[in-house]
Backbone:
């Protein structure tokens, strides 16, 4: 069973850099795309960005100037960095794997990390 | 502000059928396939539907999806207590150079 395990700093001050990692167990990066998604407390879901197994990225235009998603295939790790955080970046952050079956990838995410609560407060 | 609009709440008694709508535009639902997710309290979302009306392995056939034009819907038949959760539609949107967008979410309550 594929498992995504996340970790990273949970409390940041305004202007600091958010850094999260997501390790994939019992699965491969090859042939899949990977995303980060966040959810402010009590609110809905927001897609942050994605990376495919080749390293190509796409980002939410509203966050693009501050976000970087990367892969370390040697460690089966996905990373997220968000610079210059503010209180508006307070959220539960999820990593997720794009849904691919039979070698065909579809819109949607089938495996998710456990979620990491990141709080930005002075 | 999400570009996909869902009713904030829906409810039904056990065994009933509940339908959740998702309204968008030509740049999202009208151009791309739709996903539905179920999010239980304190948990990560779970993919319920892909390509508008297809269920990943393990999703009960009580859940069904449909799409027409710029709108879509998720139906839950034979409602069960464990179906009480938040439900989100989602798809790609072509505006602003493209991004994956989620609906506003619908809280389903089993009475």
Residues:
């Amino acid at each position: 069973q594929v498992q995504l395990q996340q970790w990273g700093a949970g409390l940041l001050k305004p202007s600091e850099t958010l850094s999260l990692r997501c390790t994939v167990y019992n699965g491969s990066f090859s042939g899949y795309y990977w995303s980060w998604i966040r959810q402010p407390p009590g609110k809905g879901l927001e897609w942050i960005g994605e990376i495919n197994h080749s390293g190509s990225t796409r980002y939410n235009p509203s966050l693009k100037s501050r976000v970087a998603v990367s892969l370390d295939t040697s460690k089966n790790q996905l990373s997220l960095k968000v610079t210059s955080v503010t209180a508006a970046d307070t959220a539960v952050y999820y990593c997720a794997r794009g849904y691919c079956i039979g070698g065909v990838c579809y819109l949607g995410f089938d495996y998710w990390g456990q979620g990491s609560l990141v709080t930005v407060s002075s | 502000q999400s570009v996909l609009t869902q009713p904030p709440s829906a409810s039904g008694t056990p065994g009933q059928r509940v339908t959740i709508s998702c309204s968008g535009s030509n740049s999202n639902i009208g151009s791309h396939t739709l996903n539905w997710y179920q999010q239980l309290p304190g948990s990560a979302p779970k993919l319920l539907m892909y390509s508008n009306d297809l269920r990943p392995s393990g999703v009960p056939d009580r859940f069904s999806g449909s799409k027409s034009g710029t709108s879509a819907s998720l139906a839950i038949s034979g409602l069960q207590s464990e179906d009480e959760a938040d439900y989100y539609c989602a798809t790609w949107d072509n505006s602003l150079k493209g991004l994956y967008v989620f609906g506003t979410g619908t809280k389903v309550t089993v009475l």
DSSP finds no helices and eleven strands in chain A. The mean pLDDT of chain A is 95. The interface with chain B takes residues 35, 44-47, 50, 58-62, 94, 96, 99, 101, 106-110, 112-115 of chain A (CB under 8 Å).
